[in-house]
RNA sequence: UCCUCGAUAGCUCAGCGGUAGAGCAUCCGGCUGUUAACCGGAGGGUCGUAGGUUCGAAUCCUACUCGGGGAGCCA
């Protein structure tokens, strides 16, 4: 008898009507009465469960009826097509073989659990509806990102996880040690906080490149949006200006949304119903509308004239606070918004100075509910200007010798951005805590599992 | 790191000075079409830890630990 996955059964239910099928899966729930019962099975291949009807003709009827949740069974039976019932089809069991017993203290019950509790059993939570949906979407979104860049000729570069450059300017680093006093690499080494500088080198050879890999920040952040280990996508484009970069960023976000809506409709409908009401309408709106663009200076004016009492002051030269970012994208523009041309003093040394001498060609993409999803800039390609900025910001140009050589040997304008993959997932799924979109999250004080 | 809220049964919570409760889960029984099935019964707790106030503390006070939310840092 041919064995099918649950996904295959759902895909071909009408064609398989009245045929003999076999499926091996875990028991999600059992309901029984005196002479018959129902099993709901899931084998991980599909979001929905397959319903199995079994009756007292089975020699092991009472054993099956008492199966603890998450036991493993192989069912052989006839597929009954039931398009008018709550389930599209069911399997009338001729035989239920018990492959492996679970036990009655299985921590996942047939009820809603809090996300906090599920975090404490991170090894089991992928068996729940919510996390099954989250991590399938995570997989699809990762593929969609590769697809987007590959189709546009970007070269995927694996930038190093271990780095000895001491001040990439993107936060606290984890120091690496072998446990002895020797410096394995001859000098202090750390886990990377960004692949950007390395990606720039490759963009000045291949033109368009992107990285997609893990990133580490040793910051004592305790929020729903920060983790010590997360994944980041960093495209870098030669011969490109800030405006070119923003177009790519917008197209990429839309592509990923489109892809997951098309390839995970059951999961996305589940999020819309149980995680964030209105999610599908929100994403549809994003795909169909143009992202807003506003200069930092104009954004400051909008905030100054806003009829809202902000906790933090607004004035030109200060960085935008969370409440300001939220006001801009949620109240003023009601969609994702690129804020561009920030004051040079609140941005990194490598960002390209604008002609006004006060602002740099940088942009953050702010989205409702998440805050900063993307941070990017045109890079300073002019060797002397770059050196000048490094000195002004207290960096030693000698430590960036190879980075400066990129400018010396055929300088050209180029631009890139960093996208926090988990933040994108939060935006796609409506999940509100970054710890719930990473399989085994690492945050301050937490690296279990 | 700061602010704030919280910690009571396996899970989600109520009780807020006077002998510890509910729903779900578990176990037992019933039920011929269920959909987080339903109905009946049972078992299950040194009320986060340590100290204090009080005749008496889950309840009030202090410290600590852990967790949620917000802020900063950022992606």
Automatic annotation (TrEMBL):
Species per Swiss-Prot/TrEMBL record: Alicyclobacillus ferrooxydans
Top-level EC class: ligase
PANTHER family in alphabetical order: ASPARAGINE--TRNA LIGASE, MITOCHONDRIAL-RELATED (PTHR22594:SF34), ASPARTYL/LYSYL-TRNA SYNTHETASE (PTHR22594)
Name of the protein: Asparagine--tRNA ligase
Localization: Cytoplasm
SUPFAM superfamilies: Class II aaRS and biotin synthetases, Nucleic acid-binding proteins
GO terms of biological process kind: asparaginyl-tRNA aminoacylation
Subunit structure: Homodimer.
GO molecular function, one term: catalytic activity, acting on a protein
Family classification: Belongs to the class-II aminoacyl-tRNA synthetase family.
EC number: 6.1.1.22
Record keywords, A-Z: Aminoacyl-tRNA synthetase, ATP-binding, Cytoplasm, Ligase, Nucleotide-binding, Protein biosynthesis
Major location category of this protein: cytoplasm
Domain (Aminoacyl-transfer RNA synthetases class-II family profile) ranges: 135-439
Catalyzed reactions: tRNA(Asn) + L-asparagine + ATP = L-asparaginyl-tRNA(Asn) + AMP + diphosphate + H(+)
Single GO cellular component term: cytoplasm
